[in-house]
Amino acid sequence: MQLIVDSGGSKTDWAIGSLNDWNIFSSGKLDCLQFDSTSIPLEILAEAKNIEHIYFYGAALYDQEKCQNVIQRLTQIFRQGNIICESDLVGACRATAGSRKGIVCILGTGSNSCTYDGNNIVKNIPALGYIIGDEGSGVNIGKTVLKAYLYGELKSETRAIFESKHFVTKSTMLTAISNPITAKTYIAQFASFPNESADDSLISLVKQEIDEFFSRRVLSYDEYLKYPVHFVGSIAYFYSSLIKELCSEHKIMLGSIIQKPINRLIEYHK
């Protein structure tokens, strides 16, 4: 039996099974540096003694020290098994490009990209996090929505729709984002609103934000016209029409757009 874990910026997917018999469970954000058994779905823990191989893909796991910490924690919980730990970007590569060359992008709560040779990440423009970077991410789009609302820039009908869905004041927002553990998730929850409101002016702002991601995180690679460009994550999925438009405008060969890597990772590790 195998366990595959895809831990992103706001959610974690757990797949357990073998051959063609798999079950998938979801949980909240997993702190890759501090988690314990209470962070793992009970259905997974119930099968702990039967798990022989674990493949763990986690956000921000870009050095061996962090990966070793994850492996140690998993070993304490599962006691046995072969454990392989990689970054979520490696997981995105395997879920989309598989064994083929390409450029792979994550557009979820955070954002990232790399070139991939079919086995390994070759080039990666450093991800600078939501305070400095994360162009095109759920956090940056969420910031755009919040600023437009609190600055009074939304159309009256759009403002009414927003207020029917969310309660936000300057005070509630500042309180929510003062917690570094939950700030990203709080801000990113507003990223879907432009899609829900169908407000052309907000959609235009989202397109600008994603285009900045293209400029900094895709067009900067010399290979961007040679290989297909793949996208993973909730923002990529829900704003796929904008991604298709931008790929056409930049003459980019679009690969796949998937919301969650977990099903593709099951196929990869079978």
Element pattern in H and E: EEEHEHEHEEEHHHHHHHEHHEH
Strand arrangement, major sheet: 3-2-1-4-5
Shape: globular
Mean pLDDT: 91
CATH architecture of the domain at 2-92 and 263-269: 2-Layer Sandwich
Q: What is the CATH class designation of the domain at 2-92 and 263-269?
A: Alpha Beta
Q: Tell me the Rg in angstroms.
A: 19 Å
Number of helices: 13
Structural class: alpha/beta
Features:
270 residues, alpha/beta, single chain, 5-stranded mixed beta sheet, Nucleotidyltransferase, domain 5
Characterization of this structure:
This protein has 270 residues and is of the alpha/beta class. The chain has a domain at 2-92 and 263-269: ATPase, nucleotide binding domain (Nucleotidyltransferase, domain 5). It contains 13 helices and 10 strands. It has helices at 42-45, 64-78, 88-96, 129-132, 138-150, 156-165, 170-177, 183-188, 193-197, 200-217, 234-238, 240-249, 262-269, and strands at residues 2-7, 11-18, 21-28, 53-58, 82-87, 102-107, 111-116, 121-123, 229-232, 254-258. The chain has a 5-stranded mixed β-sheet with strand order 3-2-1-4-5, sandwiched between helices. The chain has a 5-stranded mixed β-sheet with strand order 8-7-6-9-10, sandwiched between helices. Helix 3 (88-96) crosses helix 13 (262-269).
Short description:
Helix content is 43%, strand content 21%. The protein has helices spanning 42-45, 64-78, 88-96, 129-132, 138-150, 156-165, 170-177, 183-188, 193-197, 200-217, 234-238, 240-249, 262-269; strands spanning 2-7, 11-18, 21-28, 53-58, 82-87, 102-107, 111-116, 121-123, 229-232, 254-258. It has a five-stranded mixed beta sheet with strand order 3-2-1-4-5, with helices on both faces.
